[in-house]
Amino acid sequence: MGRISGLVPSRFLTLLAHLVVVITLFWSRDSNILACLPLRFTAEEYEKQDTLTLPAVTEMALFVAVFGLKKKPF
């Protein structure tokens, strides 16, 4: 049995941290959208910003899924 290098645990911790950030962004998406808008905004502005925010959050979730499920050589 070989010795575990420092790269595997650090990669796991990086993916875990990224997953926590993605979950937090999905959970607080409404607050983040409101922070991007001016104090007085219309429903159309909110919907537009929500539409622009969703692909970025989805991209981060896909990043975690792809690199988290990638087969790691030993």
Automatic annotation (TrEMBL):
- One of its Pfam families is TMEM107
Q: What compartments host this protein?
A: Membrane
UniProt entry keywords in alphabetical sequence: Cilium biogenesis/degradation, Membrane, Transmembrane, Transmembrane helix
Transmembrane annotation, as ranges: 52-69
* Main localization category: membrane
User: What GO CC terms are in its UniProt record?
Assistant: membrane; MKS complex
UniProt keyword Transmembrane, yes or no: yes
Its GO biological process annotations read: non-motile cilium assembly; protein localization to ciliary transition zone
Q: How does it sit in the membrane?
A: Multi-pass membrane protein
Reading the lineage from the top rank, the first entry is: Eukaryota
Tell me what this protein is called.
Answer: Transmembrane protein 107
**Organism of provenance:** Prolemur simus (Greater bamboo lemur)
Query: What gene is it encoded by?
Result: TMEM107
